[in-house]
Amino acid sequence: MDADDLPRRKGDLAGHLATEPLDSLSVDELTARIALLEAEIARTARHRDQAGRTRAAADALFGARPPAPPPSGETGR
Q1: b/e per residue, 25-61, with b = 16+ CB within 10 A?
Q2: Residue-wise pLDDT tens digits, 35-46
Q3: What is the pTM of this model?
């Protein structure tokens, strides 16, 4: 099953983008869309990295939290 086939949350922006028809877009419009999406990926990655640094600093100050238990119904095997 492809990731495109997986259900997404209702109102999820990525889900909306994945369903937009691309046939009517010109090569220039597609190129601009790709540049915009790449910029958003970079912004999201920077935010993720900052959150990781913040988490590491909190763990260093307060001690690391124990790992979360597996979701209900899973044994972790």
Answers
A1: eeeeeeeeeeeeeeeeeeeeeeeeeeeeeeeeeeeee
A2: 999 999 999 999
A3: 0.58
